[in-house]
Amino acid sequence: xxxxxxxxxxxxxESEPDEVTAAALLASFETLVNEAIAEVGxxxxxxxxxxxxxxxxxxxxxxxxxxRLEDGAAIVAAPTDRDADAVVAEVRDHLLMGMATAVLDVxxxxxxxxxxxxxxxxxxxxxxxxxxxxxxLAEIMAVIERRKP
Length: 149
Description:
Elements: H1 4-7, H2 22-40, H3 42-48, H4 53-60, H5 69-77, H6 84-102, H7 106-112, H8 119-127, H9 134-147
């Protein structure tokens, strides 16, 4: 879902990976989340998931930057038969595989993003030991995609 945005070229920068920006990815994430809410309905998603009302309100308003990856995954999985935990696992796998392909470590990612994260915090977020927002995901994913050969 989130990782498929880059693969499918939905960022609006289909031509070259070095054109992928965090802002374009985040805008695509916000559209994905907002469309899921519109399709299923805010109340139904609230019933179906454990996403708090503040995160749902932000997502419905098109401001998903501060929403945790797990909450975003629960929202976008709601209109499908996919499991939100599986969506999160796929995103993490995509990021780790991308890091290997791009020959990036967590310190290089931390130095290249605007989010105020250390290399250790990036690693914890990638492993799921610390929360990662959709804004942080967009920044990390953009760095990885731009560095892939």
